[in-house]
Amino acid sequence: MPDILVSALLAPSRLTLRLIRFFFWLLVYWGACLAAFVYFLRAFGHVLWHPARGCCGRPHRKAPAVLQDPSLGQHHFLDLKTSGLRLHYVSKGHGPLMLLLHGFPQTWFSWRHQLREFHNDFRVVALDLRGYGSSDSPTSLNSYTIEALTTDIKDAIEALGYSKCVLVGHDWGGILAWNFSIYYPSLVERLVVVSAAPMFVYQEYVLHHPSQLFRSSYVFLFQLPSVPEKLLSMSDFQILKDTLIHPKTGIPGLTDEELEAFLYSFSQKQGLLGPLNYYRNLFSHFPLERQELTVPTLLLWGEKDPYLETGLVESINKHFVPGRLLSYVLPDAGHWIPQGQSEQMHHYMWAFFKRFKI
After folding, report:
1. Is 335 a catalytic residue?
2. With 90 as the cut, is the pLDDT of residue 91 above it?
3. Neighbouring residues of 315: CB distance < 8 A, sequence distance ≥ 6
4. pTM of the full predicted structure?
């Protein structure tokens, strides 16, 4: 068939796809502008209420001592084979590898309880993901695609001298852990995911439950260039502080020094650019194809999670090979289970490891 005829036949489909893509991004940026207006009111209110903090956040000069607590493990760096980037990590213990992937706005320090709990049976490694903490932070948006971040996990496992691991992820780390288990199942002996859904499950869910989009409104804000960094840093990073210490939706029992452990890295020059670029690449992956989930997995969810509806748990179950998923919704938990409900998390993890022997 002549090329000109093929092009003519495909023209309506191509035009339809372009129109769908145009209206999709129009909707995304409309939502981004609306979210920016709401967050601006919040940020400006903080500035008016606490004028002494100033309008824009300044770098915090001294790292809190808790980041060097020797009871949490030793600090190291590894070089990634594919990208050449250097990642910081904290390691404790010996044995099979347990690799911990944090979310936003967090760092390796979010796994302090798990480093203490599992080091007698595993070599527990808590990464600073690309763009976070002391790890390298490329400025290019293309450096934070799902493909690049997933490859980082593969390279990290190999650089640590292992051929497989127990992979544990929370929030963004959970999204990456899901993706890694789909594309590199042979490298994941067991998977533990907390407060995160596979991207294709989330996509299906929001089409039938648009209320989830309101819970994820910050994702739309983060699509804008520069604006989110400015808003999150206003009044000495008060919006980030509220996220972490809010009495109803924050991390229960977080001390001032632990809060500073998170804020320190985000307050540094371009400390928010890399983490926000994770979100700026999200919509470039839609629409996504369904995947079958096969790796033995423990899923933990907070019934009071302000960002994710519990209905996502049932949606995740539908995509699993029968008998491979154990899922629990913790009735008194919110989003920050590894820190706020660590004892419950450890109980379920030990039971999971006993059932699916390692």
Report:
1. yes
2. yes
3. 197, 201, 204, 205
4. 0.93
